[in-house]
Amino acid sequence: MRTATTLFALALVVLVTGPMLAQAGHTGGCTCGQFTAKPIPWQVEHTLAAYQNAALAEFARWNDVANLSTPALGDGSVSETNGRNEIYFQSLSPDTFGLAAIRPLSAFSGSPPFDDCAAKSVSTVCGTYTEADVLINSDFLRGFTPVGPPDFNDDDGPAYYGTTALHEIGHTFGLHHNFRNLSTMNYVEDYAGQYIGIADAAAIRAAYPSQTKSMTDIGTYPFRYDPAKQLYAATTPVSFSPTTVTAGIGAITVSNATIENVGNVTLNDVKIEFYLSTDSTITASDIRLGSFTYTGAFPAGGYDDEPFPDIPIPSSVPGGSYFVGARILQNGSTTDSIAYNNTWSSPGQLTVSGGSTGCPASASDLFLNGGQFRVSLCAKNPRDGKTGRGIATTFNNIVGYFAIPDLTQDSTNFEVFVKVLDGRPVNGKYWVFYGGLTDFELTITVTQVATGAVKIYTRPGLQYGGGGDTSAF
Ligand SMILES: [Zn+2]
Predict the structure, then answer these.
(1) Measured at the alpha carbon of residue 198, what is the angle toward residues 196 and 200, in degrees to the nearest 5?
(2) With bands split at pLDDT 50, 70 and 90, how would you rate the model's confidence at 415?
(3) Beta carbons of 273 and 469 less than 8 angstroms apart
């Protein structure tokens, strides 16, 4: 059973190291009772093809771990007491997503709501099921969508059918709630509960040893689970910072992503690649950024959820807004066949500036104020549209100037001067001034290196002069 609540937790920041062995938050789970005959026959009684296919996909996810069920399409006639295990839509209380009806309930462990694994007493009754049905609430107040992946707003729009189905089907395999681990059996958001995690797979393997499969599945999730927190507060969606960068200069840190080796075999050279995409679907043909490789063995049950720092945004990226995404690989280059957890994209979008100017990639930038500020220049000849990157010369700690030999063919013809002055004694800010000795269109990008903060100054073509900013940083 799942009910709706939404809370958000703060991110935890630590350094990147290697994969961790399974520990708090990524192990443990419990089952109680099961069917005598396995795999368990199931009938999908949905009438719409989209929900039929979605249900079959969720059974398949559990079957990736062990040979648990043989789902087939039924004839649409349903009952909790007809001796058939069925999944179907049924009217329930408006705040209920769905429920698992297991008979006899005593074989599962007693009275609902189903026990939390950690709270379950050793004397819990377990036994043999005669029937189990999954009821998805046809009167759920927000309705359902069969189309994934789910979005990150848990209170807005229809709920994701796949998460509810995966959770309730898990109950019928004997899984209890698991409030202390990353698990679809946790009360979590749709975006977190859509995954079978290490904890779920381990509980299934322990309960169904003779049905267990060899499973190769390195997964990545767009959230981080904090085992010190409970329920909805324990998951934080993936994020990145800064949220505005300059192509060819800026870099981002991605936080609150998770990698889990959900399978039961050791993998090698697990690699996470980061991408920019104009839509929320990440593929290998999107704009590839950097990657991180866990050189050598990544053990079964291992995971990592530390931030990924310093992912550069190449100068070739056109200006615009992008989803940040990731793709997980093993052996440095191959994706496993359990595809649903191989990619994700961020809820927020990254704004990339500067790249649209079409400046050449070979930047030669100014570093002023002891290297605290990086200054780049892109210029455009308004008469022929040609663009050129400024080539910098440092005059002193606060002043430098640029030639634009791409446009002038003269590396000693200095066209633009830039000054970054420490005005903090006056108003608490650093000041930026610039002046052009040309009528080229100018784009001057100043980056505070330590924070990634960016200011962009543009001066149109076919005019002279410059500008200033006494509240720049
Ligand atoms: Zn439940």
Answers:
(1) 55
(2) very high
(3) no
Ligand 1 mean position to 132 CA, how many Å?
Answer: 14
- 53 to each of 44, 132, 143, 146, 246, how far by Cα in Å? 9, 20, 18, 9, 43
* CB within 8 Å of 197: residues ≥ 6 apart: 26, 181, 182, 183, 184, 219, 260, 262
Give distance in angstroms: CA of 26 to centre of ligand 1. Answer: 19
Cβ atoms of residues 204 and 142 within 8 Å: no
Distance CA 186, CA 195 (A): 11
Task: Please name which of 8, 336, 12 lies closest in space to residue 189, comparing C-alpha atoms.
Answer: 8
Q: Give the distance (Å) from ligand 1 centre to CA of residue 172.
A: 10
Taking the model in full, what pTM does it have?
A: 0.75
37 vs 126, 130, 208, 348, 351, CA distance in Å? 16, 10, 11, 47, 55
Query: How many whole angstroms from 249 Cα to the centroid of ligand 1?
Result: 48
**C-alpha 244 to ligand 1 mean position (Å):** 40
Q: What is the C-alpha to C-alpha distance for residues 13 and 25, in angstroms, rounded to an integer?
A: 17
DSSP, collapsed to helix, strand or coil, labels residue 269 as strand
Question: pLDDT tens for residues 193-221?
Answer: 999 999 999 999 999 999 999 999 999 99
Q: What is the CA radius of gyration of the chain?
A: 28
Confidence (pLDDT) at 179: 86
Beta bridge partners of 197: none
**What would the pLDDT profile of 14-53 be if each residue is shown by its tens digit?**
234 456 655 678 987 888 889 999 999 999 999 999 999 9
Please, what are the domains in the chain? 40-213 (3.40.390.10), 234-356 (2.60.40), 358-469 (no CATH)
Q: Look up tokens 């005593």; give the residue.
A: 106
Helices (H), 321-399: none
CB within 8 Å of 160: residues ≥ 6 apart:
144, 145, 148, 149, 150, 190, 191, 194
pLDDT in tens, 97-106: 999 999 998 8
- Cα 38 to ligand 1 centre (Å): 22
Enumerate the β-bridge partners of residue 456: 445
Give the whole-number percent of the chain exceeding pLDDT 70: 90
Q: What was the pLDDT predicted at 447? A: 81
Q: Which of 130, 83, 137 is nearest to 107 (CA)?
A: 130
DSSP state of 122: T
